[in-house]
## 1
Amino acid sequence: MASEITYAEVKFKNESKTSGANPGSPAALEEKTSPHKSKPGFHKQLFASLLILLLLLAISFFIAFVIFFQRYSQLFKEKQNLHKMVHQNIMCKKENLITEEKMWGCCPEHWMDSNTSCYFIPAESKTWTDSKKKCTEMGAHLLVINSREEQQFISKTLKKYTAYYVGLSDLERKNHWQWIDQSPYDENAVSWHSGEPNDSNEHCVLLNYRNSNQDGVWGLNDANCEIPQSSICETMKLYL
Ligand code: MMA
Ligand code: CA
């Protein structure tokens, strides 16, 4: 009995498909009026729409998450580093931020502060790699110069005739300068000494003063990474 009913249904479907030229046929009428025929199609469409909507939502959330993660992972890392620091004290100043909101901008005690960063010059001269390590131990990184203004600002505080390693190197690939914090290298944001960089065997960058003619200038120079030099550490300000 059951197999007979199934067969009847299959046959009915076949009939309704071929009866397109004859809309008045009993099969076509049955198709138009029967709620059992239209409902599954409607449900399918609704389900598909919901599925697409959910998929779009999931994609949007994923994109938003990736953007959020990229923007704030660096910030979280630096904040975490600041908490991990050996330093016992921090110095805070009330600051006007872009938001017009007043906040406390803090640097470790004895560090110098600028608009956005804190700077420190370790006492000992070290190779570039050991200088990098020293900054990391203090929850900081070698100086990353983001603008000519920053280079100018920091240069004014330095001792002439001392060379300072910064966080720029081409250890991985020749003539491909990379900042230690993965900031994109923009040659317009920094000021090299004239004629520098000049040597494909020099992979680490330092900031020093040169007396050309009468005017002395501060600028970058590519140098041998193994020669011990002074260095500049930088960390982000902590806002409270
Ligand atoms: C040194 C060294 C180089 C630099 C030249 C400039 C002799 O090498 O500091 O990195 O480019 O001086 O004259
Ligand atoms: Ca050089």
## 2
Amino acid sequence: MQKIELIHTPALLPYYNLQDKTVVVIDILRATSTMCVAFNTGVNKILPIASPEECKMFKDFDFIIAAERNAMKVPGFDMGNSPFEFENPFLAGKNIAFTTTNGTKAIKMAKAMQPYKILIGAFLNITALAKLIQDLNKDVVLVCSGWKDKYNLEDTLFGGALIDKLLPNFEMEDDASLSAHCLFLQYQDNIESLVRKSSHAQRFKLLNVQTDDVSFCLQQDLYSFVPEMEGEYIVNISSAQAC
Ligand code: MLT
């Protein structure tokens, strides 16, 4: 039976082996949720980038450049990291160079560890994601992006929700996945009220973020596709297959 591991933050990645495993990168608030919105809008591909300085260079190569640090849009960029920004129909067919505090960092770190496949996970596509993981039938590692290499609540809670969809065809290999599943079982009927107590939801309030990114990113199954990495880019294979 295939196994599930969960990693609370990218800082723990060196202690794991990702080779030949399906990796799901999770950044519920907000990078992986926002990436799903971008592909639903019709974005062509997303290039995850480590730093705003490097990201800005892509402006000259006909990319839309999007950068978030500390939950705020970086001045001088076309976009930040709110899912609502990526609903803009102008983005259809465009390539996005994208850097965020945690999510794009987790993607690039996982990519360097030669996994079988990297999938983009969110509540927004959770059921399609669970089906694809089962179809791939590989051991799976859930990589939470956390907050600056520290644990965050919403990514692990999502990991528990995904694990719940994978059981009993997969088995939990570690305490991190077991505790994530227990957290989900405890709060599955009150997800939003729990996440609103999280440090990142409080951060949004302190910053007076005008859009309700928390409730948007906690919606389940808005989308039935799963973005994945192809080379250095994140793409939506299912949209290509639909053509
Ligand atoms: C991110 O990398 O998505 C960050 O976790 C935070 C944010 O976008 O507010």
